[in-house]
C-alpha cells in the first residue's frame, strides 16, 4: 500500500468548512467566541501530487464584523491555513448565513481558486454545496458558498459508530453519482474526505468544496478520476468499519495495523454487508491493493456507479413492529349475520309481542293496563321530584365537594408530584459542535454551584440561524410520565428559551425532527419552570436551549449571549 502524504495537524471544525489550524492567530477573530472544539485531525493529501506551499503570502487582515462588497459580514473565522482564511458570514442583502473563503489577490493560488469557484458554480448540481459568488475586489479574492446549518459531517456521524448498510449504500450511491456528473463536466474534487461529505436533515448527501478546496491548497493530480474514485472507496470503507483504510489515523478514525496491507471491511468488522465490502475494495485498488474476490477494479466514478447498479438493492431496515389493538369480535357471527347486535347485558332475544286482543275482554284489559301505567308514571314522577329536592337540601347542608366527570370526589385534590431520578446524560449537538460535553453531569449533581455552560455567541438572544440550539439529553433509566421540569440557570436577562423533547436515545446527533416536543417556556430570570399540557411517557428527555441572554465577561468566557444550567429536575 502506497504511503499517504500528510499535511499539517488541524483543529477539527464542524461548522461547515475546512479545519482551523492549531497555530491560527485568534486575535483576528475579535469579538468572536474563542471556545471551539480542539480535536486534532490529520489532513490527508488524498493521493494527490502533494501540497504546494507558495512563498510567504500573508493572510488578509480581517476581523469579525468586517464587510465584503458591503454585503457579506464576517462573523467567525473557522479556518486559517496557507495564507487563506475561511469564515462563517451573513449575507445582509438576502439575510442568510453563508461561508466565505478569503485570500490576497497576489496569492500564488488566487487565480486558480477563482477559476475553480466559477467552474463549480456553473455546474449547478444540488448534490454539491453551491458556490454563490467569486469576486476579486480591493486586493482580495473571496469565494462565497452555501452554509448548511442543518447538515452533519460524515466525520461526526462516524464518531458514534459505523453506518447501517442501507445508509452506507445511500451514501456511496449518491456520492459516486454526483462525482460522475462532475467529471463529465471536467471537474474533480481531489479532497473528498469525511469532512467534505454532509448528510442533510432530509437524508440527502451533499459534497462541499468541489474543485475549490483543492485549489485553495494547490492540490492537483495526473489521474483525477482515479483519485476521486479511491476517495469514495475510502469513505465507504470508513462508513462500514469506522476505520480509516490507511496506516495513519485520520478524521477521528483509527488507521489499519501497520505492515498488514489493506484488509477487506468484512474481515475488519463482523456483520459488514459483503456486497458493500467488495465494492469498497474495488474502488480502493487504485492504491495498490488487490481486487476483492477477483472482481474488476473501479477506476472512475462512472465505473463505480455501474458497479453499484449491478448490486442487489439494499432496502432500509423494517420499522419496529407495533402490536395491533386488541382483537374485537364483530357482530357478524354465525346465526346473527345481518341482524343488529343485542344491547349490552341482554342475554335473551326480546320475545315477539302477541297480537292485539280484539274481543271485549281484550279492550277492557287494555284500558285497565293503561290506567295502571298512568298511575305508576304519576307516582314515579312525584317520588323522583321529592328525591331531587332532598338531594339539593343535603348538598346545601353539608357543602359537599362536587364530583368530576369520572365521579371521583377525591380527584379535585392535588395529586402528589413524583420527582424523576436522572440516571445519565449526554450533550446534544446535531451540528457536530459540542459546548462542554464533559460537564453535563454537573446539572444533576445536587450542587447549585456547579454547572454546564454554553460558549459565548455574538448574535442573540435567539441563536438561529447560526446555531439552531444547544442542549443535553437525560436518561431517566426507564420510560416515565414526564409532565414538568425545573431548570436552574446561571445568567438572568432577556431572555432564555428552553424546550423539552421526548427522545429515543442519548444520541448526540439524532435529528430533532425525530423527537416529540413536550413543552416550551421562556424566562428572563434564573429559574425556568416548564409544564406540559399532558404528560408524555419517555425514557430520554432533551433540554433544548434556543435563546440565551446577553452577559458580560467572566472568568470563563467573553461578553456575549450565553447561558449555563446549574440544576435540572423532572417531575411526572
The general outline is: globular
Number of strands: 22
Q: Taking all residues together, what is the mean pLDDT? A: 79
Number of helices: 9
Helix content: 10-25%
Separation, N- and C-terminal Cα atoms: 59 Å
CATH architecture of the largest domain: Orthogonal Bundle
Number of domain modules: 3
- Gyration radius from CA atoms, angstroms: 34 Å
Question: What CATH first level of the largest domain would be assigned?
Answer: Mainly Alpha
Largest sheet: 8 strands, antiparallel
- CATH homologous superfamily of the largest domain - what is it? Transferase(Phosphotransferase) domain 1
Estimated structural class: alpha+beta
Contiguous low-pLDDT stretches (5 residues minimum) are 1-57, 327-348, 392-412
CATH topology of the largest domain: Transferase(Phosphotransferase), domain 1
Q: Beta-sheet strand percentage? A: 15-25%
Features:
single chain, 572 residues, alpha+beta, Phosphorylase Kinase, domain 1, Transferase(Phosphotransferase), domain 1, Jelly Rolls, 3 domains, 8-stranded antiparallel β-sheet, 6-stranded antiparallel β-sheet, 9 helices, 25% strand, globular, disordered N terminus
Structure described in brief:
The chain has 572 residues and is α+β, with helices and mostly antiparallel strands.
Task: Describe, in plain words, how this protein is organized in 3D.
With 572 residues, this protein is an alpha+beta fold. It has 3 domains: 6-146, Phosphorylase Kinase, domain 1; 152-310, Transferase(Phosphotransferase), domain 1; 419-571, Galactose-binding domain-like (Jelly Rolls, Sandwich). The protein has 9 helices and 22 strands. It has helices spanning 110-123, 154-158, 165-184, 212-217, 224-241, 265-268, 274-284, 301-310, 360-398, and strands spanning 6-11, 20-21, 40-44, 67-68, 72-81, 84-91, 96-104, 131-137, 140-146, 152-153, 197-199, 205-207, 419-420, 424-428, 452-453, 470-489, 496-503, 516-523, 527-547, 550-551, 560-561, 564-571. Strands 13, 14, 15, 16, 17, 18, 19 and 22 form an 8-stranded antiparallel β-sheet that branches. A hairpin with a 5-residue loop joins strand 11 and strand 12 (205-207). Helix 3 runs antiparallel to helix 5 and helix 3 packs antiparallel against helix 8 (301-310). It is globular and about 115 Å long. The relative contact order is 0.09.
Amino acid at each position: 500500500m502506497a504511503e499517504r502524504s500528510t499535511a499539517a495537524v488541524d483543529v477539527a471544525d464542524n461548522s461547515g468548512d475546512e479545519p482551523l489550524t492549531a497555530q491560527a492567530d485568534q486575535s483576528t477573530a475579535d469579538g468572536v467566541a474563542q471556545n471551539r472544539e480542539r480535536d486534532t485531525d490529520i489532513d490527508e493529501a488524498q493521493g494527490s501530487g502533494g501540497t504546494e506551499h507558495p512563498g510567504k503570502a500573508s493572510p488578509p487582515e480581517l476581523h469579525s464584523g468586517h464587510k465584503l462588497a458591503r454585503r457579506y459580514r464576517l462573523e467567525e473565522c473557522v479556518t486559517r491555513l496557507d495564507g487563506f482564511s475561511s469564515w462563517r458570514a451573513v449575507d445582509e442583502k438576502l439575510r442568510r448565513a453563508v461561508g466565505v473563503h478569503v485570500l490576497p489577490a497576489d496569492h500564488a493560488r488566487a487565480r486558480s481558486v477563482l477559476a475553480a469557484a466559477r467552474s463549480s458554480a456553473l455546474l449547478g448540481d444540488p448534490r454539491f454545496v453551491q458556490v454563490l459568488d467569486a469576486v476579486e475586489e480591493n486586493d482580495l479574492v473571496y469565494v462565497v458558498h452555501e452554509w448548511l446549518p442543518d447538515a452533519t459531517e460524515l466525520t461526526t456521524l462516524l464518531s458514534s459508530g459505523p453506518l447501517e448498510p442501507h445508509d452506507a449504500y445511500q451514501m456511496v450511491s449518491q456520492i459516486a453519482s454526483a462525482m460522475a456528473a462532475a467529471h463529465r463536466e471536467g471537474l474533480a474534487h481531489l479532497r473528498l474526505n469525511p469532512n467534505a461529505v454532509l448528510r442533510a436533515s432530509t437524508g440527502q448527501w451533499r459534497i462541499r468544496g468541489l474543485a475549490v478546496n483543492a485549489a485553495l491548497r494547490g492540490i492537483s493530480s495526473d489521474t483525477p478520476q482515479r483519485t476521486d474514485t479511491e476517495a469514495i472507496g475510502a469513505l465507504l470503507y470508513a462508513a462500514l468499519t469506522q476505520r480509516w483504510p490507511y496506516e495513519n489515523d485520520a478524521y477521528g478514525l483509527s488507521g489499519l495495523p501497520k505492515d498488514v496491507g489493506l484488509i477487506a471491511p468484512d474481515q475488519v468488522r463482523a456483520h459488514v454487508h459483503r456486497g458493500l465490502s467488495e465494492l469498497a475494495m474495488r474502488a480502493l485498488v487504485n492504491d495498490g491493493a488487490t481486487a476483492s474476490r477477483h472482481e474488476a477494479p473501479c477506476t472512475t466514478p462512472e465505473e463505480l456507479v455501474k458497479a453499484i447498479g449491478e448490486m442487489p438493492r439494499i432496502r432500509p431496515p423494517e420499522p419496529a413492529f407495533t402490536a395491533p389493538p386488541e382483537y374485537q369480535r364483530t357482530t357478524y357471527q354465525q346465526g346473527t349475520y345481518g341482524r343488529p347486535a343485542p344491547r349490552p347485558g341482554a342475554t335473551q332475544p326480546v320475545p315477539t309481542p302477541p297480537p292485539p286482543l280484539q274481543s271485549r275482554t281484550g279492550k277492557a284489559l287494555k284500558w285497565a293496563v293503561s290506567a295502571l301505567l298512568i298511575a305508576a308514571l304519576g307516582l314515579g314522577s312525584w317520588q323522583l321530584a321529592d328525591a331531587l329536592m332532598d338531594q339539593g337540601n343535603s348538598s346545601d347542608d353539608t357543602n359537599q365537594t362536587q364530583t368530576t366527570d369520572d365521579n371521583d370526589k377525591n380527584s379535585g385534590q392535588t395529586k402528589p408530584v413524583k420527582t424523576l431520578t436522572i440516571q445519565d446524560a449526554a450533550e446534544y449537538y446535531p451540528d457536530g459542535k459540542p459546548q462542554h460535553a464533559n460537564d453535563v453531569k454537573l446539572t444533576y449533581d445536587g450542587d447549585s454551584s456547579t454547572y454546564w455552560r454554553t460558549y459565548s455567541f455574538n448574535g442573540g438572544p435567539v441563536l438561529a440561524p447560526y446555531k439552531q440550539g444547544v442542549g443535553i439529553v437525560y436518561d431517566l433509566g426507564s420510560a416515565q410520565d414526564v409532565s414538568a421540569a425545573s431548570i436552574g440557570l446561571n445568567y438572568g436577562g432577556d431572555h432564555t428559551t428552553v424546550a423539552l423533547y421526548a427522545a429515543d436515545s442519548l444520541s448526540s446527533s439524532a435529528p430533532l425532527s425525530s423527537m416529540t416536543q413536550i413543552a416550551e417556556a421562556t424566562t428572563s430570570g434564573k429559574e425556568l419552570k416548564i409544564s406540559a399540557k399532558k404528560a408524555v411517557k419517555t425514557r430520554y428527555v432533551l433540554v433544548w436551549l434556543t435563546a440565551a441572554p446577553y452577559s458580560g465577561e467572566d472568568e470563563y468566557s467573553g461578553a456575549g449571549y450565553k447561558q449555563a444550567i446549574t440544576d435540572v429536575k423532572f417531575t411526572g
